[in-house]
Amino acid sequence: MIDILQSVIPTALFYSAPLIFTALGGVFSERSGVVNIGLEGLMVMGAFVGIVFNLTFSDVFGAWTPWVSIIVAMVVSAIFSIIHAVASVTFHASQVVSGVAINMLALGVGVYLTKQWYGKGQTDMVDQPFYTTNFPFLSDIPVLGPIFFQGIYITSYLAIFVAFIAWFVLYRTPFGLRLRAVGEHPMAADTNGINVSRMRYIAVILSGALGGLGGSVFALTIASNFSHSTIVGQGFMALAAVIFGKWHPLGAMGAALFFGFAQSLSVVGSSIPILQGVPQIFLLIAPYVLTILALAGFIGRADAPRANGVPYIKGNR
Question: Which residues span the domain enclosing 264?
Answer without folding.
Answer: 2-134+144-301
